[in-house]
Known about the structure:
This protein is an alpha/beta fold and 348 residues long. The chain has 14 helices and eleven strands. The protein has a six-stranded mixed beta sheet, sandwiched between helices. A five-stranded mixed beta sheet has the order 7-6-8-5-9. Helix 4 packs parallel to helix 5 (97-106) and helix 10 (244-263) crosses helix 14 (333-341).
Amino acid sequence: MNFRPGLRSFLRTSLARATVLLSLAAAFAIPARAQQVVRVGFFPNITHPQALVGQAQGTFAKSLGPGVRIAWKAFNAGPSAIEALFAGAIDLTYIGPSPTISGFTQSHGEALRVIAGASSGGASLIVRAGSGITRASDFHGRKVATPQLGNTQDVALRAWLHSNGLKTIDKGGDVQVLPTANPDQLTLFLKGALDAAWAPEPWASRLIHDGHGQLLVDERTLWPNGQFVAAHLVASTKFLQQHPDLVKRWLDAHVAVTDWINAHPVDARTILNQQIQQLTGKPIPVDVLNDAYSRISVTYDPLRSSLVTSAQRSYDAGFLRRPPDLSQLYDLKLLNQVLAEKGKKPIL
Length: 348
């Protein structure tokens, strides 16, 4: 295409200027901000329902926005999650009360804060069929399993024995408490090598359905209003202080998922089991799942008083060196802001 000399000169000058401007823009451009990552721990079990359902439905990702990526980390034991939080490898985690108390006391109240509840209930005393146990006095000379020495169920069993005038062997009594992993409890039940077990769900229901056990004590009957903390949401104190905006957005999604689960229990169970199958390779049998889920309630209330009671029981049983001071453990300010914005009552 032919242009007049004057026009050709104008185009050359304009092109040169545009090239210079683009070069300057590239030289002084502000680099794109690195994507924020929120690292979240959870357990692939039914007492961590918000983590599993919210992950599957993308609720947390939507609440945090496109500029934030969630790095999910599955744990199988509470102490491992606390170690990861201590090491700065996770920012938030869904976790049970005993490792929370241990982490808080070990860090002299510095490392973590409880920022919301997750679930309540879900633990029971199951007796082996044929054991002849029908009441507390039948536990003299018996073998009773708990998942781990000093864990939530272990403390609950010892408190229940004490309240019924029974003592464990280490306290001069005759009840033998055996720390035994949940899968091994089922094997020992079938062999007749255990008389009873204080187990969390879904293992308590598995002892009933697969181990032919019988429910003797639903732990909910031992607590006011049938509620005690099974799991809650914990934040690294550092992350909470540095990123309150992200924590609040997470809590907004957490409350929304909690409400959805309670409004859609059948669909929630289905999603839970699908997630558990994906994470562990094996779903929970439907009859076991339904039985276990019936003894659990999903809540954003951390049920503070029940954890304080459990901590005192841990001290009484000798698992804590000094009476626990949990006055700084809870930080519910952001949760209550979210609840107020949703027209809900605050958690006191």
